[in-house]
Amino acid sequence: MSVEPRLLEVRKNVLKQNDVIARELRERFRTQRTFVVSLVSSPGAGKTAFLEKTLTLLQPHYRVAALVGDLATENDAVRLARSQAPVRQITTGTLCHLEAAMVDNALKEWGIGKLDFLFIENVGNLVCPSSYDLGENLRLVLLSVTEGEDKPLKYPTIFNSADVAVITKMDLAEAVEFDEETVKANIQAVRPGMRHFAVSAKSGVGLQEYLQFLTARIAEPMQQEPA
Ligand SMILES: Nc1nc2c(ncn2[C@@H]2O[C@H](COP(=O)(O)OP(=O)(O)OP(=O)(O)O)[C@@H](O)[C@H]2O)c(=O)[nH]1
Ligand SMILES: [Mg+2]
Asked: What's the pTM?
């Protein structure tokens, strides 16, 4: 047997194991009525800045918390904690993505109480995180205006694994001659029907529209509950 099929087999088993844990997590989140949102993007696209704003704006009205993954440092957890929301860093060492087991372990050690929203910031990478289900309800893929409009076409897998696209750093759009129509068309080319928000964590543009979308998502299942 050549090495390649063996490696493929190992990878298949890791993914299968991940899916089992992710399914358990999703079921647990469902019974606890916690809406889980994960964020994926290239390094530096603005996940932490966007999430810090999200937590700060939701915190007065909802029970929110965040897990954040990075290869090294607790920098992002320190930044997110400025929102006053509970935050935990997961350091992955050499791994370029979070896995469901890491989320499971972090939550078990944490013993955090009931939440309305749990946010999970993945390691900055446009490739690795796409294959790993974390049990989330909604996966956001972020793309900053400085990265170029062609990224959805070049990294279709991550856009296909996500539910919603968030274009970040809109305050810089003019300076880099960002063309929103082109990026919209490129997103639609790889993921027809995908919704997108155009935001800036610096100026606050687009944040209210995004938060309305998010909070409506938790209102949905609650409205279906019997009186
Ligand atoms: N002008 C502007 N800069 C931003 C915005 N959002 C983030 N930045 C800057 O972009 C840089 C990277 O932002 P982060 O929030 O650390 O990005 P990230 O995706 O969390 O990065 P990693 O976790 O390392 O992958 C920082 O210097 C931020 O201040 C924005 O909306 N506008
Ligand atoms: Mg970050």
From this structure: 0.93
